[in-house]
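We now fix the convention by which a protein and its fold are recorded. The integers have meaning only within a learned vocabulary of local backbone shapes. A record is reproduced here so that you can trace the correspondence yourselves:
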Amino acid sequence: MPCYAIEGVIPVIDPSAYVHPTAVLIGDVHIGPNCYVGPNASLRGDFGRIVLEAGANVQDNCVMHGFPQQDTVVEENGHIGHGAVLHSCVVRRNALVGMNAVVMDEAVVGEAAVVAACAFVPAGMQVAPATLVAGVPAKLVRALRDDEMAWKLAGTQTYQDLTRRCLASLTEVQPLAAAEPNRPRVRAPDVKSLIASKRGQGS
């Protein structure tokens, strides 16, 4: 993958994490255990530190960057949807930032909160734990239900499973000219069972 040191500071990737070969990591970037970083993600630790804690995922085309001497952090089991932008902010444990959302400087997305797709979280906003925010600028919509938080955690676990699948089997290949007979399907996680198990655990 494109991985660059700046001023002698080298990105750190836990061996149990998966970072796609097209993602770009620069400088003071820390990727924790069981994390997933998707295609074309850009994590630029050339001003401040970028941190993904255990089990977090940052999906395709996401950008993480920050001001000098500030950290941009996704805590344990944080879930960052396709195309989101995080800048000098903190996404707390089990929180979700939806597709193409933007979270700005010194904002904090609280534990188990959800930022809706395409929302704009302005600088300094404090998103309360276990709530849904949406809109431009983002505003509180309501508290999250237990089943919605279970759904989020199940989705994050599918990305943790994808990390293991990619480490085990993802390879660059030449495409086929035509589909082979009895073509197999990729193994799809049983998300409904995961959600049911999380409800049963009171998660």
